[in-house]
């Protein structure tokens, strides 16, 4: 006989990955007998059950659609230094009431140290472009790098359009009306929004400072944009052109299809864990995680 309120008494949810992330959706996060629990009737990633959450060893709980949280749960998480953020399906949106407070300032201090030194800041920017271009970039002029990026992204648009058989007439983006473009351009806008949300989760998870970017400068989310752009040429455009092709075939709203495809690819490709690794590799304190990433 099944025991427990919904059949899985004291079932323990393991870490989603080694970074201490747990993804929960379509249920209620609450406290019972001093333990954090998640009760769900199913319909999401978890089967119906009453699950115990190992909050003492978690970095962040990501609470998806169809979920609620009690006041006691928030107090327990705060007491143990575990962050809580609500997300869209598959982390294609990121909602939280900042600040999220990590238990160490080491990564943030290293980020500031690198950002404040023009030479070191340029080295981080070059490392970011090396990840994107899959080759060592020679120049140390940020404007030259941005010019190289512009030329390569134009080529990436064309190649991805050819791959998916989607008509492409060039990038057309109106900030005042992002839905005014054709289907591929709309899909790119929605895919970029989803990727920014994933990057925001990663940046918040490690306690990095979102305002201090190495390529982007003016936005309050400059570092988030830097990290999102590491995935622009492959994952973002794969999401966008795949969704545009499906929208042309089915007539479904391209925004819905883009979000659905983004959620799927984020999980399949481990995008957020990959972002966390790359943040630590780029600006993490020496000796803490860079060796692990390199290995």
Automatic annotation (TrEMBL):
Cofactor(s) needed by this chain: Mg(2+); Mn(2+)
GO MF annotations in UniProt: DNA binding; DNA endonuclease activity; hydrolase activity; metal ion binding
EC id: 3.1.-.-
The entry's keywords: Antiviral defense, DNA-binding, Endonuclease, Hydrolase, Magnesium, Manganese, Metal-binding, Nuclease
Pfam families registered for this protein in UniProt: Cas_Cas1 (PF01867)
InterPro entries in the cross-refs: Cas1, CRISPR-assoc_Cas1, CRISPR-assoc_Cas1_C, CRISPR-assoc_Cas1_ECOLI, CRISPR-assoc_Cas1_N
Top-rank taxon, per record: Bacteria
Cited function: CRISPR (clustered regularly interspaced short palindromic repeat), is an adaptive immune system that provides protection against mobile genetic elements (viruses, transposable elements and conjugative plasmids). CRISPR clusters contain spacers, sequences complementary to antecedent mobile elements, and target invading nucleic acids. CRISPR clusters are transcribed and processed into CRISPR RNA (crRNA). Acts as a dsDNA endonuclease. Involved in the integration of spacer DNA into the CRISPR cassette.
Name of the molecule in the record: CRISPR-associated endonuclease Cas1
Protein's organism: Chelativorans petroleitrophicus
């Amino acid at each position: 006989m099944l025991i427990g309120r919904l059949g899985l008494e004291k079932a323990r949810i393991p870490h989603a990955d080694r970074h201490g992330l747990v993804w929960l959706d379509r249920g209620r996060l609450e406290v019972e007998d001093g333990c954090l629990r998640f009760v769900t009737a199913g319909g999401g990633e978890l089967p119906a059950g009453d699950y115990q959450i190992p909050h003492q060893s978690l970095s962040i709980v990501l609470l998806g659609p169809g979920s609620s949280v009690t006041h006691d749960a928030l107090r327990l998480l705060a007491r143990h230094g575990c962050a809580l953020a609500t997300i869209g399906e598959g982390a294609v949106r990121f909602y939280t009431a900042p600040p999220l407070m990590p238990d160490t300032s080491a990564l943030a201090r290293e980020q500031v140290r690198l950002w404040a030194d023009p030479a070191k800041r340029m080295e981080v920017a070059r490392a970011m472009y090396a990840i994107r271009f899959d080759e060592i970039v020679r120049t140390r002029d940020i404007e030259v790098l941005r010019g190289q990026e512009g030329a390569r992204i134009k080529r990436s648009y064309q190649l991805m359009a050819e791959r998916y058989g989607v008509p492409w007439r060039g990038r057309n983006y109106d900030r005042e009306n992002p839905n005014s473009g054709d289907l591929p351009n709309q899909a790119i806008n929605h895919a970029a929004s989803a990727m920014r949300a994933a990057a925001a989760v990663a940046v918040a998870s490690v306690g990095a400072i979102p305002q201090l970017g190495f390529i982007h400068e003016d936005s309050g989310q400059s570092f988030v944009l830097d990290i999102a752009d590491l995935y622009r040429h492959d994952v973002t455009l794969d999401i966008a052109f795949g969704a545009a092709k499906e929208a042309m075939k089915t007539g479904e709203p391209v925004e819905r299809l883009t979000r659905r495809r983004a959620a799927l690819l984020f999980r399949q490709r481990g995008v957020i864990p990959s972002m966390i690794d790359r943040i630590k590799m780029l600006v993490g304190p020496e000796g803490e995680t860079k060796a692990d990433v390199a290995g």
